[in-house]
Amino acid sequence: MCDQTFLAITFGPCDNCSQNKPLMNIYLKNEPINYCSLCVELMACQGLAKGETIHTLKAESETLKTKLEEERAKLHDVELHQVAEKIEALGQFVMKTRRTLKGHGNKVLCVDWCRDKRRIVSSSQDGKVIVWDAYTTNKEHAVTMPCTWVMACAYAPSGCAVACGGLDNKCSVYPLSLDKNENLAAKKKSVAMHTNYLSSCSFTNSDMQILTSSGDGTCALWDVESGQLLQSFHGHSADVLSLNLAPSETGNTFVSGGCDKKANVWDMRSGQNVQSFETHESDINSVKYYPSGDAFATGSDDATCRLYDLRADREVAIYSKESIIFGASSVDFSLSGRLLFAGYNDYTINVWDVLKGTRVAILFGHENRVSTVRVSPDGTAFCSGSWDNTFDLRNILYGFALYWHQGLYIGVLHHPVMSVP
Amino acid sequence: MTINTLSQDGVQRQQMPCLTKMERMIISMQDPDMGIKLRNQRLLITVIPHAMTGLDIVEWLIKKCSISDEEALHVGQLFVKYGYIYPLKEPRNLILKADDSSYRFQTPYYWMSTRWPASELDYAIYLAKKNIRKQGELIEYEKECYNALHKRINHTWDFVVMQAREQLRASKQRRKGDRIVLECQEQAYWLVNRPPVSPEHYKLTTLTKNTIAITYCAVKYNQIFFLSCLFFLARNRVKSSICLESYVKYCEQYQPHDPIMQGCLPSNPWITDDIMFWNMNSETVALPTKLRVERWSFSFMELLNDQMGRKEFLTYLEKEFSAENLCFWQACEDVRHGETAKIPEKVDEVYKQFLAPGASRWVNIDSKTMEKTLEGLKRPHRFVLDDAQMHIYFLMKKDSYPRYLKSELYKNLLARAIVPQETKKSVFPFMRRQRHSSPSPALATQTAEDDGKAKYSNSNSGTASRL
């Protein structure tokens, strides 16, 4: 477990406003000071100082960035694929669709698993949010949102509620009622308010707090009961497209990726940006932590996925291939972290060997861009949602498929790959 | 890629990286030495130069990128779809066939990156040309578009017709071969940009991306960056070799637990429609599986994440008379992740039970941390117990946890733990097992809602994550 997740934050009176709050450690003219996140934001908004122009600011930024890259390069003594040379290569992977969940009337934009390992919530462009028991393919709940393009949805850890949002700039929480007569929309709780679309949302370790990211360039932490903003996170200069919470029980960090090509790691308590990575050449569409919490992977429009290590503080692997031209929209790890599943805008899913950096499988089967890829909580299957379009004589069905792996045996056992009719 | 729609002037439209990549590949395909061999193709009575077969394209891709047939066909198909390569014989069918069907490279003038979005005016001129050249040549949807355009840009219609006539006159003066090629190219361009069915068109419109560079935002962003930058620079870094080794170890350690890598016993429920695997690993099972118990030894977090593991650990701590540590830690978690409104009362409870002098379950924290915590309690907030919680967490992690793993209690459980039998394949493999539904997690809370203690225990079960 990564001990870096234990960020020691100071809590005390802000040097500026004197209020007791979690404090950010920042440097003003090379002197360390402790400001609360609100004061930092106000200071940043004060505009240009005398003699400064946007160009001088940018030039200084570039200098600092170069310096940061130099520092990072100092401790880089080996590449990942070199370390991985001694590991056995993975054999052939055979993956088959096991379930196809049909029922959305339009593009599936987001999918999330329930902790019971079989239920899924999915949201689509037509405003529908559906909760399925993926194992039986039954639909259990359906909500129609008042807006279209519901880009974010999340299942609560207890399994009793779902959160969703999109073009309405809000994140709403719907408690799941089993009463057939009850209209889920009636008990809806409006939690988050942003000034632009909601791109991603996630519950923290309980049903009581939600983390959201938005097209307005910020992320925010909200209290579900009161709808109160607990912390906001500023530091992206363009839309934030994705976020992911660190898997540590006592950790307090999360990572976000955005259209400014940056992936930022944040402390949830103080709002401080603790690490920043900018090596992608285009928008980062998706971020996901490696299961140990020591690293995270990103999928981007530049058709690469990259792995960033938090302790080494640098990018450690790039997953790309000449024949992969379109951007990766979504990434997720298998349970052991050995495999990285990435959905691409050219309708395929590529499966990467995280350690060796090679691609182990390419999955066809979707007829439109893959918008989301999620591995189930116990790693038994992974599901992909897409902008699919299956024409039927009577109506248009959009579906998404559930894939799982049949059973790969490597090493000494030499089991054959299971073939199931 | 953001879905923000195109805004007014002053917005920078960036080239989609996928288009740049495709164009780079197209250029290398046309390389005189390493590219695809082009030949003349007979189309009716005319000879079209510089054509290639679908098979040529696929084979070149296989060789260049070291990929399979299927993938090469898929990649080649993308080039056709986005108008970089067009078919000669069946121009309306934008599909790549890996046989001797002929294809040509589209001229850069008509590339997606140079002429996008396709303008209405140009389309009107194109349709007008077709109409003039041969009456009735417009097919159904083209006729509809033509009429719609005629209505929409009626004010410039004279210009449209004049342009169309001029272009037709100019083309008559060309050699027949050139004329046909130019017509093919133009036709291909419009087939890509104005396809008969709209979904493609819709997709194309969302390809652009905007970078709104409003000045004040850039200033603010840069300021924030400076403020954080020295913090970034001052970070303690670890050597790459150490970090990367840890991944190898982690993957190795977890591989037997990864169903996608190594299957799971008795069987993967999605494959065999048998939920034994889930039943055997549920929270309330009498005897856990061996893999599950082994996993508790991987890290302290694994033990705590599993409700059963936590219970076992608590039993052990009770024997050691240090159970209050785990209870304190759990109570702190509840404060951190619970409702904001309830924080003061929860913190008070914690103080009474664990921190007050003479408390029934007093936890042993060092005096400095205790002092700081007690001071903070005067104005309770979500993180007031963080320092104390961390101290106790590390105490358990460094002391109680290793001893638990060596204890009789753990070893005993490990010995008794089940190794499930692999499910034998059914005799009639085509008969599908019935898939039963399971009680919804929402049900569990509803029935327990009346019970006052439920909220606390539920928020705890909410924190349990994996198996």
Range of strand content of chain A: 35-45%
- Give the strand tally of chain B: 6
Count interface residues per chain for the largest interface: A-B, 156 and 124 residues
Q: What's the total count of β strands of chain A? A: 32
Biggest sheet layout of chain A: 5 strands, antiparallel
Structural class of chain A: mainly beta
Tally of helical segments of chain B: 23
Task: Present the secondary structure layout.
The complex is a heterodimer of chains A (421) and B (467).
Chain A: E1 10-13, E2 20-28, E3 31-36, H1 37-44, H2 54-74, H3 80-83, E4 95-104, E5 108-113, E6 119-124, E7 128-133, E8 138-144, E9 152-155, E10 161-165, E11 170-175, E12 189-193, E13 198-203, E14 209-214, E15 219-223, E16 229-233, E17 240-245, E18 253-258, E19 263-267, E20 273-277, E21 284-289, E22 295-300, E23 305-309, E24 314-319, E25 328-333, E26 339-344, E27 349-353, E28 359-363, E29 370-375, E30 382-386, E31 390-391, E32 396-405
Chain B: E1 12-13, H1 17-29, E2 39-43, E3 46-53, H2 54-65, H3 69-81, E4 85-87, E5 102-105, H4 120-133, H5 140-152, H6 157-172, H7 176-193, H8 198-205, E6 210-211, H9 215-233, H10 240-254, H11 259-262, H12 269-272, H13 276-280, H14 290-295, H15 300-305, H16 307-319, H17 323-337, H18 343-355, H19 367-376, H20 386-406, H21 408-416, H22 441-448, H23 454-463
Antiparallel strand pairs in B: 1-6, 2-3, 3-5, 4-5
Helix pairs in contact in B: 2-3, 4-5, 4-6, 16-17, 17-18, 17-20
